[in-house]
Design goal:
Radius of gyration: 40 Å
Number of strands: 0
Structural class: mainly alpha
Shape: rod-shaped
Strand content: under 5%
Order of helices and strands: HHHHHHHHHH
Length: about 280
């Protein structure tokens, strides 16, 4: 019995001793707090580096070149968009009035005088004046070799073709730039994207780990450059398509008016569509 009592006391003394190392072991503590989305404070701070302000501060010479190029493209395309929109609106507003006034004038001399009073940028009056000048020039040279080589109809037709081509080319002012901006601006923005990704890879290599705080800034810069390129290109493409359609309709009016002028000055009578104005 004495031996059993000693054994029980030994076991009771060993139990606290066995539990003490577990109680003395330090409990792990979290060094960083986590957000509700599972991101740490470090990751959240890294994502704050993806803004436009950080991109401006992190741009190097290549990045600034890309950004300034896109800015110049945008300003140029918007300038020609506004100018061409105003020009097309003015031409369409005056076209019917100028053509109607020409055909309603009692005699050719008064009609020519009316066309001379029109603004310098009015195309229909300039086409009519070129036809009238061709008639006057041919009449003054009928006794010379000019009258032998080209008859009246051919001479007027050539003058009208040149006038229509000249006024059509004026309608195309700025169209080449709009087409260029619409087709190249996305690629200029893509250059900024590639350059930003290159910086992201450099940051990964310098840090030795592919952490979000090492790549967030350069990747954000790349994405913003892509977006800027698209914002520049999309309005330019829309404007180019709209003006291309408007110019095609105006050129059709040029051709119709030129055919009527040819019939009028070649025959001396108002025939075709011109006679019904």
């Amino acid at each position: 019995m004495l031996q059993d009592t000693d054994t029980t006391e030994t076991v009771q003394q060993a139990a606290p001793a066995a539990a003490s190392p577990a109680a003395a072991a330090p409990q792990p503590q979290e060094t960083t707090s986590t957000l509700g989305t599972g991101l740490t404070d470090t990751d959240a701070a890294a994502f704050q580096q993806m803004g436009f302000d950080h991109m401006i501060g992190a741009l190097d010479m290549v990045g600034w070149t890309v950004l300034i190029t896109l800015l110049i493209m945008s300003i140029s395309s918007w300038y020609f968009t506004v100018v061409n929109a105003i020009k097309n609106a003015v031409i369409n507003a005056r076209a019917d009035r100028v053509v109607r006034s020409f055909w309603q004038t009692p005699n050719p001399q008064d009609a020519v005088r009316l066309m001379e009073e029109q603004p310098k940028n009015e195309p229909f009056s300039k086409i009519a004046l070129d036809a009238a000048q061709a008639v006057a020039h041919h009449q003054s040279g009928e006794s010379s070799r000019l009258g032998e080589v080209l008859n009246r109809s051919e001479f007027i037709d050539r003058a009208l073709r040149q006038a229509v081509a000249r006024e059509s080319s004026r309608l195309e002012n700025g169209m080449t730039l709009l087409a260029t901006v619409g087709s190249t601006a996305p690629f200029v923005g893509l250059l900024g994207t590639v350059w930003g990704i290159y910086h992201a890879l450099i940051a990964i290599g310098a840090s030795g780990q592919a952490s979000i705080d090492a790549v967030a800034g350069p990747v954000g810069e790349a994405l913003i450059m892509t977006a800027i390129g698209l914002f520049v290109a999309i309005p330019a493409v829309i404007a180019y398509n709209a003006f291309n359609r408007a110019n095609r309709n105006t050129n059709e009016k040029f051709d119709t008016f030129a055919h009527d002028l040819h019939d009028f000055f070649a025959t001396g009578a108002r025939v075709g569509d011109g006679g019904r104005h």
